[in-house]
Amino acid sequence: MEYVIKLRALSESDVSTLVEINNSGYPGVPMEDAAQMGALLEMSSLALGALDDNGELIGFVLALDFGQNYQSENYVFFESQFRNHFYIDRIVLSADARGLGAGSALYEAIFDHARKAGLERITCEVNIEPPNPGSLRFHRRWGFEDVATQATKGGSVVVQLLQAPLV
Question: Whole-prediction pTM value?
Fold first, then answer.
């Protein structure tokens, strides 16, 4: 069965579904409650959901422009290294959505948004401890390069900080 992934802007009414999808992706992404997810959604300059054939959310991306007052350890790192970057805070797919092209559809939208905005690079991180080799392979296919590694969450998580140059 071939899927045609549709994307739509996310809104506050999506927060409970975003929390459910997000928390199903743990430990690849941190657990969030509705208040934390709502605040992140509000801060995001790009907030898109991927929909299945029934119009149900099966994944999402939340990304932020540079220069935001966001205290994520990884965002703070990128802010110290780059100007004019577009930070992917998280992209999460439900277990049912993996392998259907939703991740690629979301990344096409991310790259399109960043290019149209005249940004120089896209930044993100992928866990290497606990390992997330599938995500790292996915990001390599999209042209992401290593910037550094960083221990976060008091040393309980180690991430590979990545960037994809756009210019």
Answer: 0.93
